[in-house]
Write a structure and sequence with these properties.
Elements lengths: L7 E2 H14 L7 H10 L3 E4 L2 E4 L1 H5 L2 E8 L2 E8 L1 H16 L1
Antiparallel strand pairs: 1-5, 2-3, 4-5
Helix pairs in contact: 1-2
């Protein structure tokens, strides 16, 4: 998987992981499924319907940014290189189970 130095949104991280999984004939991962793994592992928590990094998540490089769209304002998690690597590990471990 190409770990990027840029901060990435969850869908881009999932796409990068899926590109690797496809090469090995493994099922792709969606951003929703990856978010679920991150919550289960304690790197994200859901507060008032918003996914936010826990202290563990912040330590591995998950940050947030405020955004706005036609639907209103929202908070988006962004994933640094170490967080992207952790996402890959979580997916691989989940697929081994």
């Amino acid at each position: 998987m190409e770990i990027e130095d840029n901060l990435l949104q969850i869908s881009r991280v999932a796409d990068n992981i899926s590109a690797v999984l496809i090469r090995y004939n493994k099922p792709k991962i969606s951003g929703i499924s990856l978010n679920k793994l991150l919550v289960e592992a304690g790197f994200l928590e859901i507060t008032d319907g918003v996914k936010l990094p826990t202290n563990s998540g912040k330590e591995i490089g998950i940050s947030t940014i405020k955004r706005s769209s036609s639907h209103g304002n929202y908070t988006q998690c962004l994933f640094g290189a170490a967080a992207q690597h952790m996402c890959l590990e979580l997916v691989l471990n989940a697929q081994e189970e």
